[in-house]
Amino acid sequence: MSLLALIKGKRGASGFGFASTAEEVTEGLDLSGQTILITGINSGLGQESGRVLSQRGAHIIGLARTQKKAEEGCARLSGPTTAVACELSDPASVRAAVDTIKASGQTIDVLLCNAGIMALPELNQSNGYELQFFTNHIGHFILVTDLLDCLASDGRVVMLSSAAHTMPYKEGIQFDNLTGDGGYSGFRAYGQSKLANVLFANELAKRFEGTGRSAFSVHPGGINTNLGRHMDGPSNILFPLVGWIGMKNVEQGASTQVYVTTSPDVIQHNGAYFADCNVKAKSAHGQNDEMGARLWQVSEEIVNALGGASA
Ligand SMILES: NC(=O)c1ccc[n+]([C@@H]2O[C@H](COP(=O)([O-])OP(=O)(O)OC[C@H]3O[C@@H](n4cnc5c(N)ncnc54)[C@H](OP(=O)(O)O)[C@@H]3O)[C@@H](O)[C@H]2O)c1
User: Has residue 238 been placed in a domain?
Assistant: First the structure.
């Protein structure tokens, strides 16, 4: 057996590993009666997570940039769904989604914050902030903090991060350059946004201590989805190469987030970072509580300046 096959076949303490699929990690689970919100329901890992969680009986609140995309994504699932438009780079759209969900009166068991963009070659901004930071972090920050009223007393928040959280700018979060105007690298900015996802989950987990709620961050692996749509130049060569060595298919790629969303075993690891369906070490920045607390405060300031919480 080759070394690669050995690594891919390896399983960790959870009993699952690199090659486990979302169906496998939920085998035997009955999720009927549970409501799970998923951002990015129309594509890639969000769609596969929705498919499997729905197959296990959960009611899925499926969010996508537009109502049409949310409805199309939800229509491909087998169980009950609620489709909601939520453009994460537009605070008004996120707040409208929150208002719609709150008005439905549903209690949410898991907020699976899956949507994201990666490595835009040129600097793009929303509301004056670098677009990956704003979409991947600030959009989800508004969504989650505004929906905490609807989260079950034993509810979970699952943040899709990435191994790229280990490769942000040298100082981690560039608090003095959140606009990107002071210098921009597509991959570093993606790393920064994914570090923000880890730090946000850490800080949420601390705030949840003793409440029954929990929060986690996840690296799904390398999966050939639409995420790579913005890549150009050397990445076009590098990525297929990395992919050949360590790529998962979408069924395997969705397993870690679906495992963390559903497994009773993860609750004991409140605040942990998971990859290949097992707890993994975070980067040094990813364990920096001071940076996490500052990020929360700065995020609140940004959000308040943009109009505060939804109704
Ligand atoms: N694939 C990988 O190798 C990999 C590795 C590490 C981490 N991840 C993380 O996994 C998550 C899922 O990615 P994926 O691989 O499934 O990629 P994907 O197929 O491109 O799906 C990303 C989803 O996010 C949505 N999205 C993007 N920008 C948005 C916005 N402004 N507002 C609302 N929704 C938005 C997309 O909607 P549209 O289709 O409308 O654009 C799509 O539904 C991401 O957070 C990514 O960072 C993926």
Answer: yes
One of 129, 169, 184, 259 is an active-site residue; which one? Answer: 184
Q: Which atom of ligand 1 is nearest to the CA of 89?
A: 31
Distance 202 CA to ligand 1 centre (A): 21
User: What spacing in Å lies between the alpha carbon of 301 and ligand 1's midpoint?
Assistant: 26
Domain limits for position 26: 3-305
Instruction: List, for residues 268-306, the tens digit of each pLDDT value.
Output: 999 999 999 999 999 999 999 999 999 999 999 999 999
Question: Can 259 be counted among the known catalytic residues?
Answer: no
Whether 310 is covered by a domain: the verdict is: no
In percent, the amount of the chain with pLDDT more than 70 equals 92
Determine contact, residues 273/217, Cβ cutoff 8 Å: yes
pLDDT at position 307 is 87
Q: At 251, is the secondary structure helix, strand, or coil?
A: helix
| Overall number of domains in the chain | 1
CA distance 180 to 197: 18
In a domain, 134, yes or no: yes
pLDDT bracket for residue 230 (50, 70, 90): confident
Among 45, 68, 194, 250, name the best residue to mutate to test ligand 1's pocket (greatest count of ligand atoms within 8 A of Cβ): 45
Give mean pLDDT, residues 224-238. Answer: 72
pTM here is 0.96
Q: Is the CB of 65 under 6 A from ligand 1?
A: yes
- Cα(115) to ligand 1 centroid in Å equals 4
pLDDT of 18-32, one tens digit each?
A: 999 999 999 999 999
Q: Supply the pLDDT for residue 228.
A: 81
For ligand 1, is residue 43 a contact (CB within 6 Å)?
Answer: yes
Beta bridge partners of 247: 222
Q: Is residue 311 part of a domain?
A: no
CATH number at residue 177: 3.40.50.720
Alpha carbons 311 and 298: distance in angstroms, whole number? 22
CB 77 within 8 A of CB 62: yes
Gap between the Cα atoms of 263 and 223, Å rounded? 22
Ligand 1, closest atom to CA 88? 32
